[in-house]
Write a structure and sequence with these properties.
Layout lengths: L3 E10 L4 E10 L5 E10 L3 E8 L4 E8 L1 H6 L5 E4 L1 E4 L6 H13 L7 E6 L10 E7 L20 E6 H9 L6 H12 L4
Parallel strand pairs: 4-9
Antiparallel strand pairs: 1-2, 2-3, 4-5, 4-7, 5-6, 5-10, 8-9
């Protein structure tokens, strides 16, 4: 970019992910160059999936404790979300979400349709999310799910009527952005 120069990164943390302070100069439309400083959190990219059963009119969601949400609003620490996970190593987003579906919710699906790529907090996070949809049936259930103990996961698997999920967004029981986007995609495209 011609309007960006003198980028300087200072690492602030490499504990769970990477937090950098980035100082840079940016030229605004009026021609003025300004020095700007931002913090940038890089925890890699992720994938999420909306699992739906047309025959039963149901959706599979997860419920788990999320410390950052709790830190912001104590009463909202338990988050209801679509199944999701971090893309590790050189995995492809589709490989990641197929694996996460099996680990978190106990369904072995063989394919999913990518419907979006999105940045949910581009002012602070580098994470790009790859969002998928896929049908599931009872025959695809291979375990109870719940996540991996070695990843310190304790995930409650929820199978809910789609109409209930929509009302849970309206009542703010579901406030997770990726979940809301995928539910709206399902509504617009009449998946159920």
């Amino acid at each position: 970019m011609k309007n960006l120069k003198n980028i300087k990164r200072t690492n602030l943390s490499k504990d769970w992910a990477t937090l950098d302070k980035i100082d840079y100069e940016y030229q605004f439309k009026n021609g003025e160059w300004k020095s700007i400083s931002r913090e940038c959190y890089n925890r890699g990219d992720g994938a999420a999936i909306f699992l739906y059963n047309v025959e039963k009119g149901t959706v599979i969601l997860t419920k788990q404790f999320r410390m950052p949400i709790y830190e912001n609003t104590k009463s909202e620490g338990m988050s209801i979300e679509v199944c999701a996970g971090s893309i590790e190593h050189n995995d492809k987003p589709l490989e990641t979400i197929l694996r996460e579906t099996e680990e978190e919710v106990g369904y072995k699906i063989s394919e999913a349709k990518e419907v979006f790529k999105t940045y949910t907090s581009p002012g602070a996070l580098t994470e790009k999310l790859f969002l998928y949809v896929a049908e599931y049936t009872d025959a695809l259930k291979i375990s109870e799910g719940g996540g991996l103990e070695i990843e310190n996961e304790e995930i409650e698997v929820l199978e809910l009527p789609f109409s209930k999920v929509i009302s849970m967004i309206e009542t703010e029981e579901i406030i997770d952005a990726k979940t809301i986007m995928l539910v709206q995609y399902a509504q617009i495209n009449k998946l159920l």
